[in-house]
Amino acid sequence: MTTWRNISLRITLLWVLLFLISLTIFSALASSFVLNARQAALDTKLSAQARVASTSIDGATSRLDTDAVVLRIRGFCLILYRTGEPIQIEGLHPTPAAIKRAAALPENVPATIEGPTPYRVFKVASPDVPGTIVAAFAYQQPIYDSMQVLHRSFAKAIVPIVLLSAFLGWLIARTSLAPVDRMVQTARAVARSGRLSNRFNVSTHDELGRLALTFNEMLDRIELSFQRERAFIGDVSHELRQPLAAIAAEAESTLSRPRQHVDYESALRAILSRTHQLSGTISDMLLLARADAGALADKLGRCEANEAVSEACADMRTRRAGAALLVRLCKNPVRVPLSAPLLERLISNLLMNAFRAAKSQVSISVAAIRDHAQITVDDDGPGIPKSERELIFRRFVRRDVSSGGTGLGLPIAAAIAEACGGHLRASENEHGGARFTALLPLSS
Prior knowledge:
The chain has 8 helices and 14 strands.
């Protein structure tokens, strides 16, 4: 909750800061617009007054005709210059310094004379009397005063506006982060209770909704992992208990009989056989544990599939003398991103599984199809029903207990294939028997 509040506070402060920056920029632009508009309006009046006055000069006296010139601007005056010297002033007299500075200003261009009393000036040459210039003056201070009033209005309005924006920002942050608070509560409930079945409530499709979905997917995987781990521990305890119990029974039986009636060699051979069985099971479980941890992917290597199949088949013929095994290799080299021992282990497990189910013959073939190597193992046994084709890749699952095995051969083969980015699938061949196809990516 503290983190949630801190985030809300940070979002609110950031919102207020951005609002203040935007309001400051708006005030500056608005003030500049108002100033330019009022300045342009004053310049238009000064220009019109100066041009009217420049055509109202009496030719006989060379002075402004006061009857024709009407001063329509408050704080306004007209000054008639001849050869740079003021000769006539009508209206409120500007300061001597302003009059002198105005004489040097360019014509037909409005200008501001700054000072204690700022003036706006517009000068026009008389078209009738050469050397005579008319300058229209007006106080600039009223514009400055109006701008100060505008700035004070902005300053008075900014406080309630900022307070309102802060409240709205806090409300928006609180509403937006409410799903985060619910996610924290759900995560805390999972951590305290250990119930991985809890899920985050997904009510939106925005970033937080996608985050909740990602967390739900992560919890699904964690829950599945824990379920597999519990099942694995149960299966392991069962599989290890059986050979250990057999070893203990054999040892107890041997020790309970008189020495003269004990065949120690036979007993030791039975114990050795069970020990080898137990050692093989433990090795298989270690290999699967390494696959689960991703350790196989670090030691994949590279090998030629035809050679690995030949080695695995030769070893199988040695272990099963007289077994009918048909081998079809690819004419071209087929390199896959697996070390030779791992690929031979995959092939041996598939062959051993096929021989357990086959009636008379097992076949294996190697082919390169597009960017994958395909290793196919067929048998002429009863085949595998569709409903069991996914089940057989689970650990310790055995379709026929009497055939022997620990139920780890196919899971190990599938784990090796997946470690290099491939996969293993079960299907039915044209004779109705089982077909196992390992698709492995080709290696350059």
